[in-house]
Amino acid sequence: MKRKACFALVVCVTLVASGTHAFFKISKPAANMTSGAAALLDTLDDEQRKVCQLPYDTDKRVDWHFIPKKERKGLIVRKMDKKQRKAGFALLRSALSKSGYDKSRKIMELESILAEFEGKKARFDRDPEKYYFTVFGSPQADKRWGLSFEGHHVSLNFVVEGDEVISSTPQFFATNPGVVKNETKTGIAVGTRVLAKEELLAFDLVRSFDDKQRGAAVIAEKAPREIRNAGAPQPPTEPAAGIEAGQLNKSQRKTLHALIEEYCSAMPYDVAEQRLAAIEKAGWNKIHFAWAGPLKEGIGHYYRVQGPTFLIEFVNTQPDAAGNPANHIHCVWRDMHGDFAMPIKKG
Predict the structure, then answer these.
(1) What is the pLDDT of residue 345?
(2) How confident is the model at residue 27 (pLDDT cuts 50, 70, 90)?
(3) What is the pLDDT confidence band of residue 13, given thresholds at 50, 70 and 90?
(4) How far apart are CA 213 and CA 268, in angstroms?
(5) Of 21, 76, 164, 264, whose CB count within 10 A is highest?
């Protein structure tokens, strides 16, 4: 079944089934990203371009974080005109799947809830337009170049070379609130849950364990406050912990696969399939699932999914802006061979 998508870039989209998920297949994401980045840069004046386009080998390329910051690398959406914003978001759309793009935009919108609840007491500037585009190097078909889109609770990082996206990590999404539980003036409905499957599938899995499985999976009674190596250029290299996928039954393995695919599905089909193919080659049974904290919502909890090629970490321990406990999610996908197309250093 083929569908056409009308963006600034015209791409071919096909719905493709993979496991329990359906991925939208966007043809040639690397080519679309390269042309999209060039199109964005062409809309900028000289001063904007100096801010938006940095050398590929700058240290800022691997300087990522999701916390609120007064300033960040790149060109802020707030200072872009209508044409520039259209080009910028067309570029972001080409770098992500429809699901990933929608999550990014909805996370940005949640900043308006934080602004309303925090009001004059806010320690940080809460603004859905305080997100930044950065292009590293020259976006050309015969060059290696990078892209960052980042702001509070979003950090998306890519490296493109030729006709391939050779790196798409760190991939970070977060939500505050995790579930919108209070009425607001923002127009965001109560019950909105941007990262629902990332949380609920993990609960489904850990709650399905028998006593022996749970004993292997639970690594701590209390969840850590934060994911490991937040903002670091490379993921943690500690051995995988928790229960091995080979110790799960058929239904549990299906849930684990669905959880992993949910993170992959934020990326275009080609990138998602590269990730899943790498997992297949390394062996699904080498994946470990680890949990920390109680098995109920509203109390701090954490999980980790790790295989030879990837690492997922998820934490929900902080209250939301309205004070609802454990309603503030951070989650990340990282490359155990090295983020930012940089070989990981072990030991």
Answers:
(1) 81
(2) low
(3) very low
(4) 34
(5) 264
Q: Does residue 25 have a pLDDT over 90?
A: no
Residue 42's pLDDT band, with cuts at 50, 70 and 90, is very high
Tokens of 54: 């940095």
